[in-house]
Amino acid sequence: MDVLQIVLGFVLIAFSLGISVLVALQPGKDKRLSGAISGGAADTFFGKSKAQRREKRLEKITVLVSVVFFIAIVALYCLV
To answer: Taking Cα atoms as reference points, which of 65, 67, 61, 68 lies closest to residue 26?
Structure first.
């Protein structure tokens, strides 16, 4: 095996674990819906805004990691 293949293999493992963690950190759709119906401390303007910014940032990071993961898979496939 080539050293580059081994490195890309480790990169794939790291990114797959990262994607798993990022997806697990994202709140479900039902959680947002129940919070909107029941109300609570997060219903203040700043609480909603902060939660939405966090969710958007988490979503962007997840997409970025997924794209890099896909590129690494294609690169590894082309090398083999």
So the answer is: 61
The string of pLDDT tens digits covering residues 3-49 is 888 888 898 899 999 999 999 998 877 655 555 555 555 555 566 67
pTM beyond 0.90: the answer is: no
Looking from the CA of 61 toward its CB, the CA atoms found within 13 Å total: 16
Q: Phi-psi category of 26—alpha, beta or left, where left has phi over 0 and alpha has psi -120 to 50?
A: beta
For the record, the structure tokens of 7 come out as 């490195």
Amino acid identity, residue 80? V
Q: Are 79 and 8 in contact (CB under 8 A)?
A: yes
Q: What gap in Å lies between CA 52 and CA 31, rounded to an integer? A: 13
Looking up tokens 């939405």 gives 52
pLDDT at 11: 86
